[in-house]
Amino acid sequence: MSEALAKKRKIQKYLGNVEVKIEHCKGCGFCVEFCPTGALELSKSFNKKGYHPPMLVDQNYCNGCDLCGLYCPDFAIFGFRVGPNPNFKKDEKAK
Amino acid sequence: MSEQTNHTEGEPRVNPVLPYLREDRMPHIWCPGCGIGTTVNCFARALTESELDLDKVSIVSGIGCTGRVAGYMNLDAFHTTHGRPVAFATGLKLANPDLKVVVYSGDGDLMAIGGNHFIHACRRNIDMTIVCVNNFLYGMTGGQASSTTPDPATTTTAPYGAFEHTFNLPFLADSCGAVYVARWTTYHVRQITKAMKEALAKKGLSFIEIISPCPTLYQRRNKLGDGLQAMEYYRDNSVVKSGADTREVEIKYQGEIICGKFVDRERATWLDCYNTRNAAAIGARYRPYPWRENGEGGVK
Amino acid sequence: MKADPSGVLTGRHYFDGNHACCEGALAAGCRFAAGYPITPSTEVVERIAKRFPHLGGVFIQMEDEIASSIALQGAVWAGKKAMTVTSGPGLSLMMEHIGLAAITETPCVFVDVQRGGPSTGLPTLPGQADMMQARWGSHGDYELIALAPSSPQECFDYTVDAFNLAETYRVPVMMMMDECVGHMTERVDIPAAETIEVTPRRYTTKKKGEFKPFEPGENMVPDMAKAGDGLRFHVTGLTHDERGYPVINAQAQDKLIRRLVDKIRLQADRIVRYEEDAVENADVIVVSYGITYRVALRAIEMARAKGVKVGSHRLVVCWPFPEKRIRELAARGKPIVMAEMNLGQMYWELERCAAGKCKTALVSHAGGTVHNPEVIYNAIMEAVR
After folding, report:
1. Which residue among B60, B268, C34, C235 is least enclosed by CB atoms within 10 Å?
2. Chain B: residue nearest A32 by CA?
3. A53 prior amide bond cis, ω within 30
4. B275: nearest Cα among B294, B259, B251, B291
5. CB contact under 8 A, B270 and C60
6. What is the predicted pLDDT for the residue at B238?
């Protein structure tokens, strides 16, 4: 994945997650590109139609904002918030 | 099989768009990287935020890729003939003014074959919301030039490049009398959602143009990359100018895309005018339409 | 169900056919109309525009006939009984939505006050040359119902019938008037509301989830739904299954289109309507409809005065064509003469059904005025010679 994506990644205050309907994904990459925290990437594996569905790189990067769900033209992914992230440190913000 | 998800633990969760869709019709027919589905997400969220009674919301589409939206929405849905959704919706709305009527269709359907209906609905200020997903060509039929294809983009019927002058849709809607006019691109998901919410709340004809990628026909044929590259282009080349003079928001080939809410005004609707005129002419005997006492007027 | 008295102008009137047609629609419960001005039909919507505000109805003059013919379908799906009114050039534009009404089984009424065609033709003068267009004008296979009134009284009566038939069979119903009938002024008796039978729309009693908008019910016709009732149904002009979902394959097409056609063809005996006079012992039968029927009556009188046994078969419902009855009449072997104000349209149906069992003759007329009765008389005399 691109450097720009990696740059966005930092441990989030809230822990989020995504749910992916793997077979509905057409691999457009909107969710990966426009995830504000860079938490997603296209997986190496294929679905049955031959597309690479997205996957969460690390739950720490996802705050469950569901922007992926808002972008996904195939209604194949959505994000949700799980709760406060125990791994979040205040100074993380200052970085 | 198609239901397979990465869901592993805890309560089953539901995609917030799902209650708005006819799940038994998924997956949809739209191409990878097409933006129409993205607009549907925004529409679903706008419906949620509007807190409308969904049983009273009707969606009407014409023919084409965007014309399939009605068929996928879990609402009273009408997939009509090519170019005529606005005329159908006019009848639907006037026959039962308690319905919230949304027309959802493409640039070819609404603005070329349906152009006459569109301008007259704006002029009459029929109380409805029209969402036009503009991908600059006819997608369903294989990428022919439309009334919005900019010079010199090539299409299957403009193999040497389009050369006709195009419609500037916000200006068209504005000059014909729409009371709410906005344009966004599929990159602007939050803004689309907000615009749709505002449009649904607006009395009169509200119009939203959404610029959307057609990766299969417009992007590829013009060597503009895929849907994602179109989205990045929108991100990098959109200029938000709310309140801009609609005469100055014309879209040029790969030029900047002026977005924003351009028009938000008050104007009596067709039905208001109908009742005002009849009351003035007929006097106290006139009962405003729709009649509500005895089930007349399609309203109980 | 009986007519809503508020829309029934009970009494004896002196109306032209167009005004009578309007009153028929109001009596039948029509409360939405969309139209576009066109001679010689406009008086129908002019009167509607005047009457509706007093009855809780809405008339909208649309931007063209295409829009009118679909706005009315929107109104039907919102729960109204609806119609549009036009003449030949407008009917040509409406064809796309006759097809839509057929495939979506939208009950609605199209009034065609026929004039001379093709194209702009004879705007102010009569014709009967839209008969085949009314039946076959939209692409694809479908069936509909068409009625042909021959007097202002019948313009009233048949318009009520047209709305009732539309509801019973969920098809577009055509009122095939003509300029003469539309503009001819005669006595019209409008009966008391409680004597006018009105067919209510048959709405489903099923709930969301169990309701399938295109599942055939009584008479092979599905129950209706209307927008806003929470059924969240889907209607499409694409070939669809019982759920109303598009299905693009040969099996779905076969199932749907055969039902759309069969619901009329297999029940034609209940729809077909004609009036006969003295056909049993006739040496020649005259078949006619609309205004031409009244001209033919004069010719029949003239021939009878000469001692010829002439029978009359007059089409009330033109589509579906009274195929079975015409076959019976033809089997008698006696000639059949058909008079119509075109160069042969319903005549081809007559000839097809006669199938060589009897001699047939067409008394054609290009339109612009009615036949001279002498011409029909001559054809009768020629046929029995």
Report:
1. B268
2. B228
3. no
4. B291
5. yes
6. 98
Tell me the pLDDT tens digit for each residue of B17-72: 999 999 999 999 999 999 999 999 999 999 999 999 999 999 999 999 999 999 99
Residues B247-274 pLDDT 10s = 999 999 999 999 999 999 999 999 999 9
Element (H, E) at C125: strand C122-126
Find which of B21, B53, B74, B94 to mutate to test the C interface (most C CBs within 10 Å of its CB): B94
> pLDDT tier at B13 (50, 70, 90 boundaries)?
confident
Enumerate the domain spans of chain A. 3-86
Tokens 């009153």 label which residue?
C23
The class (CATH top level) of C277-384 is alpha beta
Neighbours of chain C (3+ CB pairs under 8 A): B
Distance from CA of B282 to the nearest CA of C (A): 9
Instruction: Give residue for tokens 């919102």.
Output: C78
Query: Mean per-residue pLDDT for A71-78?
Result: 98
Can you spell out the DSSP letters for chain A? --HHHHHH----SEEEEEEEBGGG-----HHHHH-TT--EEE-SS--TTS---EEES-GGG-----HHHHH-TTS-EEEEEEEE-TT--HHHHH-
Give the residue extent of every domain in chain C: 5-195, 218-269, 277-384
pLDDT tens-place string over residues A13-25: 999 999 999 999 9
Residue B2 in this model has a pLDDT that exceeds 50: no
C104: which DSSP letter? Answer: H
Nearest CA in chain C to B25: C245
The residue type at C383: A
Which residues in chain C are contacts of B22 at CB distance < 8 A? 234, 245
Contact B87 C67 (CB under 8 A): yes
A3-86, CATH topology level: Alpha-Beta Plaits (3.30.70)
The strand pair at A77-84 and A14-20 is best described as antiparallel
ipTM attached to this prediction: 0.97
Q: Is C210 helix (H, G, I), strand (E, B) or coil?
A: coil
Q: Which domains does chain B have, with CATH numbers?
A: 20-267 (3.40.50.970), 269-300 (no CATH)
* Domain pair C5-195 / C277-384, same fold: yes
Q: Cα C136–C142–C146 angle (5° rounding)?
A: 60
d(CA C307, CA C346): 28
Q: Would you identify the CATH topology of the domain C5-195?
A: Rossmann fold (3.40.50)
Cα separation, C183 vs C42, in Å, equals 11
Chain B contacts of A74, Cβ < 8 Å? 27-28, 30, 32, 37
**Residue C185 structure tokens:** 């002024």
Residue C230 has pLDDT above 60, yes or no: yes
Residue with tokens 């119509």: C340
CA distances from C137 to C74, C91, C98, C99, C134 (A): 21, 9, 8, 9, 6
Long-range contacts of the stretch B295-300 (C-beta < 8 A, 24+): B296/C31, B296/C55, B296/C56, B297/B96, B297/B97, B297/C31, B297/C56, B298/B95, B298/B96, B298/C31, B298/C78, B298/C79, B298/C80, B298/C226, B299/B96, B299/B97, B299/B98
Please answer yes or no on whether C234 and B290 come within 8 Å at the CB atom: no
Residue length, chain C? Answer: 385
Residue B5 has pLDDT above 90, yes or no: no
Helix (H) or strand (E) run with residue C28 in it: helix C17-28
- Contact criterion met (CB < 8 Å) for B94 and C64: no
- Among residues C9, C155, C164, C22, which one has the least CA distance to residue C84? C22
Report the alpha-carbon angle C228-C230-C235, nearest 5.
75
Please state the rounded mean pLDDT for residues C218-226: 96
Q: Is A70 on the interface with B (CB under 8 A)?
A: yes
B4:A34 CB<8 A = no
The answer to whether A46 faces chain B, any CB pair under 8 Å, is no
Could B15 and A21 be called an inter-chain contact, meaning their C-beta atoms sit closer than 8 Å?
yes
